[in-house]
From TrEMBL:
This is ABC transporter ATP-binding protein. It comes from Kribbella speibonae. PROSITE patterns: ABC_TM1F, ABC_TRANSPORTER_1, ABC_TRANSPORTER_2. GO terms for cellular component: plasma membrane. InterPro entries: AAA+_ATPase, ABC1_TM_dom, ABC1_TM_sf, ABC_transporter-like_ATP-bd, ABC_transporter-like_CS, P-loop_NTPase, Type_1_exporter. It comes from the Bacteria. Residues 335-578 form the ABC transporter domain. Keywords: ATP-binding, Membrane, Nucleotide-binding, Transmembrane, Transmembrane helix. It is found in: Cell membrane. It holds the Pfam family ABC_tran.
Length: 584
């Protein structure tokens, strides 16, 4: 019962988000289409009897009821078409926003690496319009049931045995539920193949992959894989559709038989008036029509409930119970990883197999290690993107798992090697790092990132980025990276600043200049306890850090200053000398 109530609340919420006025109008015009059959049926009896007996009052009363019913029949479709067009224009965006909230609004990201989550997300994206198209269902359902009950009571008044006429919907309803289960299973089975086809399509049209695809002449190969994935998805869907249609057709065949049976019963009565016959025929048609609508509505309800279940499941997975512990305004002690273990998926190999690490407040800490050492995993845990399997990440002694992650992230900044190229204006692309920052702060961040090239752009910080837009400007890889660094520096007084390979797209001279500015920014942040975390494969850029930590298979094998580690003649000293020799 709770799931039905939750589904109804979801639909009403969608309708209200689309627009209260439009939602109300759409509901009214939809409901009016169900009123007309009942009005016509009620008006036919006095109209026919009045014509036969010559009673003008009956003719007038019946004529008015029939006229009003026919007016609904003629006028309601006009309002319904207009309201439907407007509803669908808005509902598609509302449905997309709901899915976007689930996908992008989650506090953590581990669910994006789970196939079940991605399959359900793919299914919800396909079926989200069903939710928006069914926003009136909580009201229409009650109205159709009321119409069926009233028509049945009036029909039973003529001949009690006809009260069983609505029962013809029961076997059809059962078959409809079975057909919906088949369709639901097929959607989940086809989701991985649809997702693959969609990924191949996006890969084929993305500018970032166009060069490599053309050089490798991958066009025909991508088409072949896309066709195979699409064929598999279509085969699963078509087989399920055929089975569900065959099952449903058995149930639908009951309705014409029921109507014919009611007609025979009525015509065999000897003491009925022509008006009674007309009323009975109209009511029988209304009852069968209402039962038919109930069955159709039941199928819609089952489909919508299935879609809503995907929505609720994704919402539960993406939004676990939030923490309540407050985030400190400044760090006094530091950040500590205590006996932390973490692994990806079902893989038994742990990226962090019991890691202990302390990052002192007010210091610049560099993390170095070979590929696969666990550096990126460490960053994901420190920024709250993942929770440890065991152990804890402590922020001034408070477990990060108990904290409000949204509040915590307001105090964290990060620049990544795989940065996002936001096709916004320059100012917007930088300000997004702090959600909404004033222009002066954006310019300050650009200066810290050595992004002076912005002044040479057509409209400066107001220049539109990305060639997919009219007058949009494309930047070089290094320029995009400088914007990413500026984005990481725009937030005022963060607790933690993470720079994960921030200079991968920069030449050595530019890299040195950027790191000098980052070092100055880190020194300026010492007073408020800020921790600056540097991750880089270039050892020359980390030697000035207050603390250097060497990771190997997720374990801390060395830690100290550059001079201490060089004197220790361990892994760090060996890798530093090898890299230095390569630059000679």
């Amino acid at each position: 019962m709770k799931s039905w109530v939750a589904t109804a609340r979801l639909l009403i919420g969608l309708g209200w988000e689309i627009g209260p006025g439009l939602f109300t109008l759409y509901t009214v015009v939809t409901m009016s289409s169900f009123v007309s059959p009942l009005l016509v049926a009620l008006g036919v009896r006095p109209l026919v009897d009045g014509v036969v007996s010559g009673e003008s009052r009956q003719v007038v009363a019946g004529g008015i009821a029939v006229a009003v019913g026919l007016t609904f029949v003629l006028v309601a479709p006009i309002g319904y078409r207009w309201a439907t067009i407007r509803m669908r224009e808005r509902s598609s965006f509302v449905a997309e926003r709901r899915v976007l909230r689930l996908a992008a609004g989650a506090p953590q990201i581990q669910h994006f690496e789970r196939p079940e989550f991605l399959d359900r997300l793919q299914t919800l994206r396909r079926e989200a319009p069903d939710l928006a198209d069914s926003v009136t269902m909580p009201f229409i359902g009650l109205f159709v049931v009321a119409q069926l009950v009233i028509s049945t009571v009036l029909l039973a008044d003529l001949k009690p045995v006809l009260a069983v006429l609505p029962l013809v919907a029961i076997p059809s309803l059962w078959l409809s539920r079975r057909a919906e289960r088949i369709r639901r299973r097929s959607e989940l089975d086809a989701a991985p193949h649809r997702r693959l086809a969609q990924q191949l399509f996006m890969l084929s049209v993305a500018p970032s992959s166009a060069q490599e695809l053309h050089v490798a002449s991958m066009g025909d190969e991508l088409l072949r894989h896309h066709r195979e994935a699409a064929d598999k998805a279509n085969t699963i869907a078509h087989r399920a559709l055929l089975r569900s249609v065959l099952i449903g057709s058995v149930g639908w065949s009951v309705f014409p038989l029921a109507y014919v049976g009611a007609l025979v019963l009525i015509l065999n009565e000897s003491n009925v008036t022509p008006g009674d016959v007309a009323l009975a025929l109209a009511l029988a048609g209304a009852v069968v029509s209402a039962a038919n609508r109930v069955l159709d509505l039941a199928g819609t309800v089952l489909r919508v409930r299935t879609t809503a279940e995907h929505y609720f499941w994704l919402a539960h997975q993406a939004h676990p119970e939030p923490g309540t512990a407050p985030t400190p305004d400044r760090l006094l002690h530091g950040i500590e990883l205590k006996h932390v273990t973490f692994g990806y998926g079902a893989d038994d190999r742990l990226a962090l197999p019991g890691t202990d690490l302390f990052l002192p407040a007010g210091q610049t800490v560099a993390i170095v290690g070979e590929n696969g050492a666990g550096k990126s995993t460490l960053v994901k845990l420190l920024t709250g993107m993942y929770r440890p399997a065991t152990g804890a990440v402590l922020i001034d002694g408070v477990d990060l798992a108990t904290m409000d992650l949204d509040q915590y992230r307001q105090k964290v900044s990060a620049g990544f090697q795989d940065f996002v190229r936001y096709q916004l204006t320059v100012g917007e692309a930088v300000a997004v790092g702090g959600l909404s920052e004033p222009p002066d702060q954006v310019r300050t961040a650009l200066s810290k990132a050595d992004a002076g090239f912005v002044d040479t752009l057509p409209q400066g910080v107001d220049t539109q980025l990305g060639t997919s837009w009219t007058d949009g400007v494309e930047l070089s890889g290094g320029q995009w990276q400088k914007l990413a660094i500026a984005r990481a520096l725009v937030r005022p007084a963060p607790l933690l600043v993470v720079m994960d390979e921030p200079s991968a797209s920069l030449d050595p001279q530019t890299e040195a200049a950027v790191f000098d500015r980052l070092a100055a920014e880190a020194r300026a942040g010492r007073a408020d306890g800020r921790i600056t975390l540097l991750i880089s494969h270039r050892f020359s850029t980390v030697r000035s850090a207050d603390l250097i930590v060497v990771l190997d298979n997720g374990r801390v094998t060395e830690r100290g200053t550059h001079d201490e580690l060089m004197a220790g003649n361990g892994t760090y000293a060996e890798l530093y000398r090898l890299q230095a020799a390569g630059y000679r």
